[in-house]
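Narrative summary of target 7.
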Amino acid sequence: MDISKLAPWNWFKKEEEREGSTLPIKRKDSQALSHYSHPMSQLHYEIDRLFEDVFRGFGFPSLGIGRGFPRIAQTDWLKPTLDVGATDKEYTISVELPGVDQKDVHLELVSDTLQIKGEKKQDKEERDRDFYRIERSYGSFQRVLSLPEDADRDHISAVFKNGVMKITLPRKALPQIGTKQIEIKTG
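Modeled conformation, tokenized:
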């Protein structure tokens, strides 16, 4: 029995390593966080922030906790969501890129990683307009996916349609690792 088939491939290994290597910066002189100076207030704020992050991870809208106060680290403002699937013949990755033009998306194969880079550009409006609230994000984004050994790096294809990029990676047969008996001699 091949146990490796039971454990799925960690496509996000390199991305997680990269995110784990950044340290959040906390400024002591921030006036916005001055009333969080008491340890119990800090604990309350952090628990609220934790719950907001959990609910946002399930697709719920922001609860508005800490609104107006800067977050310590906001690395996923523009982090496109994606689905990874597999059959016996290929891997498929669907990346949601709403509001992003195809010409602003780049797909690169770097060593054993597939890098999806791009930019969501803000439309320039000449009219004077007062906004009550702006929730849309603009800027650059990047996703880094670790490729499994059996992904055929020479035949990767991508199609961009209706704000979704579908990447197809054919699977190739890996050489079988056989068992070799080694003769033990009497010495």
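Residues 2 and 176 are 12 Å apart (CA to CA).
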